[in-house]
């Protein structure tokens, strides 16, 4: 008996994007007037593909670049594609919010992207007061999860820009303030 795969059914494709914020801040040092990151979300600063790590699950196949900033993946019409961003600090010090996916070449593959928040009433997190200090058993607490998502509207290949806002931790260690807006360009191919 063979495994049955329903490849024509719409799938959720999740893309976790981890940004090395230290490298970005070291290059785009605000103290140097010639290198100031954009403060305008409609005109983000362009970046190369290094120090960005995209991990894709649920796609119709990785064309290339899994785990890099050069991800190219396949999807089908009606698939849902969801982007989530984080810093290497898990957004605790520096924080990353992916706010726009913008076409710059090829076919209009995606419908409108929207920021959506999902609330899990009993999501898990490590218990800092566990007997063995290993975080287990976990605590169940209400937690918000946010994604930027759209459905795939038609076949083709689209070069798109992933736009993100970078926030840095204030001197008092309690507030994250805008550092700048940035973008770079992976690819999607829809069969």
Overview of this protein structure:
This is DNA-directed RNA polymerase subunit beta. It comes from Paraburkholderia antibiotica. InterPro entries: PixA-like_sf, Uncharacterised_PixA/AidA. The protein is built from one helix and twelve strands, in the order βαβββββββββββ. The protein is 4% helix and 53% strand. The strands form two sheets. Strands 2, 4, 5, 7, 10, 11 and 12 form a seven-stranded mixed β-sheet that branches. Strands 3-1-6-9-8 form a five-stranded mixed β-sheet, with no helix packed on it. It is mainly beta and 191 residues long. It has one domain (12-117, 146-190): Sandwich (Immunoglobulin-like). The longest helix has 7 residues, at 21-27. It has one helix spanning 21-27; strands spanning 12-19, 45-46, 52-57, 62-64, 72-75, 80-87, 95-106, 114-127, 135-151, 156-169, 176-184, 187-190. The radius of gyration is 19 Å and the shape is globular.
The Rg value, from CA coordinates, equals 19 Å
CA-based shape: globular
Total domain modules: 1
- N-end to C-end Cα span: 28 Å
Keywords: DNA-directed RNA polymerase, Transcription
InterPro entries: PixA-like_sf, Uncharacterised_PixA/AidA
Protein name: DNA-directed RNA polymerase subunit beta
Pfam families: PixA
């Amino acid at each position: 008996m063979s495994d049955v795969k329903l490849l024509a059914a719409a799938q959720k494709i999740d893309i976790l994007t981890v940004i090395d914020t230290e490298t970005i801040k070291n290059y785009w040092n605000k103290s140097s007037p010639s290198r100031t990151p954009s403060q305008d979300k409609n005109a983000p600063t362009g970046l190369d593909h290094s120090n960005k790590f995209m991990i894709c699950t649920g796609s119709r196949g990785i064309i290339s670049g899994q785990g890099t900033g050069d991800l190219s993946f396949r999807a089908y019409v009606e698939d849902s594609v969801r982007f989530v961003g984080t810093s290497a600090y898990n957004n605790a010090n520096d924080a990353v919010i992916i706010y726009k996916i913008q076409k710059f070449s090829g076919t209009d593959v995606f419908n409108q992207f929207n920021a959506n928040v999902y609330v899990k009433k009993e999501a898990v997190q490590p218990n800092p007061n566990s007997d063995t200090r290993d975080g287990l058993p976990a605590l169940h607490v209400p937690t918000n999860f946010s994604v930027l998502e759209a459905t795939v509207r038609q076949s083709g290949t689209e070069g798109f820009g992933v736009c993100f806002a970078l926030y840095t931790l204030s001197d008092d260690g309690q507030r994250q303030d805008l550092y700048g807006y940035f973008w770079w360009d992976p690819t999607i191919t829809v069969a």
